[in-house]
Design goal:
With 415 residues, the protein is of the alpha+beta class. It is 40% helix and 21% strand.
Length: 415
């Protein structure tokens, strides 16, 4: 949520930002509402001052008593009107996108994303490759059909050595982040509406949410929601910032509107698993920690040996809460190209204003900035399966994961 003072002082900047991001918001109307609100608030303060002054004279002056009664009636009317104006302003502000970093590229969709760097050599195969779905079926480690039978399309089972590889991978990633200063959490998998609103998923991504009927609860789409919400209404010690948190959770998304997008196997599903990076920091430090989270993502992919490229996400592919976003796209042989495996967003104070998360460091006060960055998802697992498949149908396990799996290769049952 944008500070109303920025809109007052830079209305043209905010107007251009809204137009660029495709949000038709009446900035002139908002500025007028804000001016009316401030004028009304000034009138209220004057009346309150008069009431307090005259209240001291009531015992001696009947006229003062009558005037105090009149002031109370006027105050009630003006205070009610002020509440209405403030709510109208709030309803506009909560639907306004964040400002953009100066280097966010133009573009209407992911084709406008700009490559920053490419890392790793693409695999070469002298045999007919399989996609992760076929590999999963042949090796009996991934069961998509029974996931659909038990739940619906978009749900799946990791099985046997596949489940062990998944558990080893997510555990290793958490250990890696802990070594980088992150506190590991296990969070709820449900969150209240206020938490989803505060993190920007409402109203901007309302159609992606699985709501619990009759409850003020929804399944989380990411532990970003529960980790950022952890500090709602808190004043953090600025001397102890940054706070770096991580959690491994299942995540649930309806994927509304994704019909027709490439989604073979389990690339795009309703339930997946993710390790998230969340950073709370001072405003001047958010660019640095945005890069820090990207370094972690790249280190994970490099250690696994997966080829990838980093892209600066364009305005049309950047969600409303984001100020700047990096995606990492890893190479999938079955797609014959790079596909997204992590997203890393600097949200500045968009979330902290909505959730009232502040910091104090001596005389310095303000809203913290938040960074939300993927560390790992199932997509990296299926990327490993495809990149490390062998001519005999087996899959080589990355060396770093072998101490946690207990095996260095996944083979078909009976082999």
């Amino acid at each position: 949520m944008i500070d109303i003072r920025i809109i007052r002082e830079n209305a043209d900047l905010v107007r251009r930002n809204c137009i660029r991001r495709g949000y038709p918001i009446d900035i002139d109307g908002l500025v007028k509402l804000d001016a009316d609100c401030r004028m009304l608030n000034s009138e209220i303060e004057t009346l309150r001052s008069d009431r307090n002054r005259l209240s001291k004279e009531c015992a001696k002056d009947p006229a003062a008593r009558d005037r105090v009664k009149q002031i109370k009636l006027a105050l009630g009317e003006k205070e009610n009107k002020l509440e209405v104006l403030q709510e109208r302003i709030r309803q506009v502000l909560i639907r306004m996108p964040n400002l953009l970093a100066p280097d966010v590229p133009e573009g209407t969709d992911d084709t406008g994303n700009v490559e920053i760097r490419k890392v790793g050599d693409l695999p070469r195969f002298d045999f007919k490759i399989k996609d992760h779905q076929q590999l999963g079926e042949d090796l009996d480690i991934l069961d998509i059909a029974r996931g659909a039978k038990v739940a619906q399309t978009g749900f799946y089972y990791w099985k046997g050595q596949g489940a062990m590889l998944a558990q080893a991978f997510f555990f290793w990633v958490q250990k890696f982040l802990a070594s980088r200063g992150f506190t590991v959490f296990m969070t709820p998998c449900l969150a209240k509406e206020r938490t989803l609103f505060g993190t920007g998923y409402l109203p901007f991504f309302a159609d992606q949410t699985y709501n619990i009927t009759g409850e003020d609860l929804a399944l989380i789409g990411t532990s970003e929601q529960t980790l950022v919400g952890y500090h709602a209404d808190d004043v953090l010690d600025g001397a102890k910032l940054p706070l770096c948190y991580t959690a491994y959770t299942p995540c649930f998304r309806t994927e509304a509107g994704s019909y027709g997008r490439a989604s073979k196997g389990i690339f795009r599903v309703h339930q997946f698993h993710k390790v998230e990076q969340i950073v709370f920091c001072k405003p001047e430090d958010s660019p640095k920690y945005h890069e820090f989270c990207l370094e972690n993502e790249e280190a994970i992919l490099q250690t696994l040996g997966l080829p990838y490229h980093v892209v600066n996400v364009c305005v049309g592919d950047l969600g409303a809460p984001g100020y700047k976003k990096y995606d990492i796209e890893a190479y999938f042989p079955s797609f014959g190209g790079y596909r997204e495996v992590t997203s890393n967003t600097n949200l500045t104070e968009f979330q902290s204003r909505r959730l009232d998360i502040r910091y104090k460091d001596g005389d310095e006060r303000g809203f913290v900035h938040t960074i939300s960055a993927t560390a790992a998802t199932d997509r990296m697992l299926i990327c490993m399966m495809e990149n490390f498949q062998q001519a005999d149908g087996s899959i080589v396990v990355p060396e770093v994961l072998r101490p946690f799996t207990g095996f260095d290769r996944i083979t078909a049952p009976g082999k």
